[in-house]
UniProtKB/TrEMBL annotation:
The keyword NADP belongs to this UniProt entry's keyword annotation: no
InterPro entries per record: Cell_synth_A, Glyco_trans_2-like, Glycosyltr_2/OpgH_subfam, Nucleotide-diphossugar_trans, PilZ_domain
UniProt source species: Variovorax guangxiensis
Protein name: Cellulose synthase catalytic subunit [UDP-forming]
Known function: Catalytic subunit of cellulose synthase. It polymerizes uridine 5'-diphosphate glucose to cellulose.
Any GO BP annotation: UDP-alpha-D-glucose metabolic process
């Protein structure tokens, strides 16, 4: 079913236009909510209420539109609040000190999850879905833009495509200047920049890392606006025309952010084989959360694929240097001074994801430490300048990175009972079912509706379980002493020569796996010999432990690094092309993928061609044809693979314009994941978990064989030399 509600802004409704009606509605809603939350009910009454509310949610979920989403959020808040009220008032009466300590630990984790759930609803209930504003027809009225590409230790092969794409942006040439901010001070970068006609900028120090690099460039440039791209993020030709229109409409607009889209698989996608089939870890943030933040004027600056107004950026002191998440902190400073930010959910650039799980973990550690630093030294709950909704959006972003300890508690909580008989929830199994299951079911059903195409259920638990131990320590340190820790650069463009099991990253998951396996053994022992009177409680904790094993098995699978041998990633792309053969014949065809090193084409008929035969392939930008010399790498049936011959800078720039800089290439792939049924998601994670266990056992079996294998015997030749036998 469809609804026009999705096109209605809250301020355009009857309640939005009448403050007294809005206040009365909030008052009535609050009274009803409190009454529903604190009403004491028997087990039978609680079960009846839970079933009735869940049926209502299922019915509402069949109707499209945002008001249906708001109704489901309301029901979820009621059920979850009832659960938390019950937990706080009826399940914490414990005489045993061990029960009390472990019970408080679980309660803290649940309160944290409850707060994050509520704040998440605030952020995502009504995404703004801002549309681009067209630039004036007269290009003389367009402002000047300085485009910064900061780099430190990345290879030139990673940076050159970004530079060439930046030169291809559709913007008046005299109003766009491109600067490569090279903190590595490399001669080959200087030579390249001079050859292609962009500015190569260095400084005599590396203070404040990326933020300091950008701030140094700000002092020596004059453009009215600053566009910033990480050196692996390749902009499309339409980037500035899409992003700049809102600045002309809002004089107080300090920053416009667009999504970070990655054309290569991140370590989870690569190692788990989910690239293109399961939304990745970042899609929820860029697909939904930032769009929800935009409603509350709380869009975060993300360090790349963004444009900043120079005057406002300079007024807040440039890019923030007090924390290692300089981007989000800069946006916070803008909001404190009353300036606006905006988000356009249209991918206008694409970059490289981290190649290895260890690199991915290192990146997330930096993000987590930086957000904890902001929480500690510039807490958005306090200080002047922010509206209440902005404070909540920032707080939720910072609380998100504190998930380390709560996730570790969830992965070990059932072991308290299985090992020690500790009742961390002082209630019968039937009461726990009556209160906890509705809370879990409603939260998952509602979030599934809201998050839909951008995050599948339960996958966040896999991501968080992998990172929990590594996130927990730096966030704790940053909360205690925000000055500790250093900036680490995320490596991009590397290769993984051999498949291997990353035992260092998997160490925490393996330890938790061992604990949970022992918990299963303890539970079976309790079923048989100990807890005949508490069978339901044992089974409840065993079920929780089995679920944790499935999640941890997927974590182990993520640590099994697959090989990455291509310097240039292949990207699926179907566009018209023409092949010109050495004998003068030509053939219209279509590409199926490409990279900076070559492309694949589908032919209308088989074309016998020898390997290494020279050909010319033509690609198109509008009515313009661009030809590129190539050789045939393979020719199988109606499919042919081509490797580009050495290209001139002009040819490289034309290739970028026809491929990665196309205005439509990334937007067509954005948010296209179909909604997935719960049973399919669980089944998928379970299969991945089984593969993780198989790979883990295979790794340790091979390691054991290597240790047991005897050293090679040595024999002597007639000449007396030694050789192994």
């Amino acid at each position: 079913m469809s609804s026009d509600a999705a096109d209605i802004h809250p301020d355009d409704t009857l309640l939005g236009r009448h403050p007294l009606l809005r206040a009365a509605a909030w008052l009535v809603t609050g009274v009803l909510l409190v009454a529903l939350i604190i009403a004491p009910l028997t087990l039978q009454q609680q079960l009846t209420l839970s079933v009735a509310i869940f049926i209502a949610a299922l019915v509402i979920n069949r109707f499209a539109g945002r008001f249906g989403t708001l109704a489901m959020i309301f029901l979820s808040v009621v059920v979850s609040s009832r659960y938390m009220y019950w937990r706080l008032t009826e399940t914490m009466v414990m005489d045993n000190p061990l029960d009390l300590v472990l019970g408080i630990g679980l309660l803290v984790a649940e309160v944290y999850a409850f707060v994050v759930l509520l704040l998440g609803y605030v952020q995502t209930a009504w995404p703004l879905e801002r549309k681009p504003v067209a630039m004036p027809a007269d290009t003389d009225a367009w402002p000047t833009v300085d485009l910064f590409i900061p780099t430190y230790n990345e290879s030139l092969s990673v940076v050159r495509a970004t530079v060439l794409a930046a030169q291809s942006i559709d913007w008046p040439r005299d109003k766009l200047k491109i600067f490569v901010l090279d903190d590595g001070r490399r001669e080959e970068f200087r030579v390249f920049c001079e050859a292609v006609g962009v500015q190569h900028v260095t400084r005599d120090n590396n203070r404040h890392a990326k933020a300091g690099n950008i701030n140094a460039a700000l002092k020596n440039t004059t453009g009215e606006f600053i566009a910033i791209f990480d050196c692996d993020h390749i902009p499309t030709r339409s980037f500035l025309q899409i992003a700049m229109g809102w600045f002309g409409k809002d004089a107080k607009l300090g920053m416009v952010q667009t999504p970070h889209y990655f054309f290569s698989a991140d370590p989870f996608e690569k190692n788990l084989g989910t690239f293109g089939t399961v939304p990745n870890e970042g899609e929820l943030f860029y697909g939904l959360i930032q769009d929800g933040n935009d409603l509350w004027n709380a869009t975060f600056f993300c360090g790349s694929c963004a444009v900043l107004r120079r005057t406002i950026c300079e007024e807040v002191g440039g890019i923030a240097v007090e924390t290692v998440t300089e981007d989000a902190h800069t946006a916070l400073k803008m909001h404190r001074l009353g300036y606006n930010t905006a988000y356009l959910a249209l991918p206008q650039a694409a970059g490289l994801a981290t190649e290895s799980l260890s690199g991915h973990v290192g990146q997330r550690i930096r993000w987590a430490r930086g957000m904890a630093q902001i929480f500690r030294i510039d807490n958005p709950l306090f200080g002047r300048g922010l509206k209440w909704a902005q404070r909540l959006c920032y707080v939720n972003a910072m609380l998100h990175f504190l998930y380390g300890l709560p996730r570790l508690i969830y992965l070990t909580a059932p072991l308290a009972y299985l090992f020690f008989g500790a009742s961390v929830i002082h209630a019968s199994a039937s009461m726990i079912f009556a209160y906890a299951l509705p809370h879990i079911f409603h939260a998952n059903l509602t979030n599934s509706r809201i998050q839909g195409r951008f995050r599948y259920l339960f996958w966040n638990e896999v991501y968080e379980a992998v990172l929990a131990w590594y996130i927990f320590r730096p966030t704790l340190v940053a909360l205690i002493n925000p000055k500790l820790g250093s900036f680490n650069v995320t490596a991009k463009g590397g290769l993984i020569q051999e498949e291997y099991f990353d035992t260092t990253i998997a160490k925490a998951s393996l330890f938790l796996l061992a604990l949970n396996f022992m918990g299963v053994a303890a539970g079976l022992w309790r079923l048989t010999f100990v807890d005949a009177d508490n069978i339901a409680t044992v089974w409840l904790n065993l079920a929780w432990t089995f679920y944790n094993l499935v999640i941890l098995g997927a974590c182990v699978a993520a640590a099994n690094e697959t090989r990455q041998l291509r310097n240039a990633h292949r990207i699926a792309l179907q566009i018209p092309a023409t092949l010109y053969f050495a004998d003068g014949h030509s053939m219209r065809c279509e590409t199926y993928d490409f990279s900076t090193g070559g492309l694949g084409v589908d032919l209308p008929i088989e074309m016998p061609t020898d390997a290494d035969a020279p050909v010319t392939v033509a690609l198109y930008r509008g009515d313009n044809e661009f030809r590129f010399p190539a050789t045939v790498r393979f020719n199988r049936g109606q499919r042919m693979g081509l490797a580009f011959a050495p290209l001139s800078f002009d040819q490289e720039r034309a290739l970028v314009q026809c491929t990665t800089a196309r205005a439509d290439i990334w937007a067509a792939r954005w948010g296209n994941h179909p909604r997935a049924a719960v049973h399919r998601v669980i089944g998928h994670i379970a299969r991945i978990s089984a593969i993780g266990f198989k790979d883990m056992f295979a790794h340790y079996y091979r390691a054991g064989l290597r240790k047991l294998r005897p050293a090679p015997r040595v024999s002597h030749t007639a000449a007396g030399a030694k050789e192994p036998t």
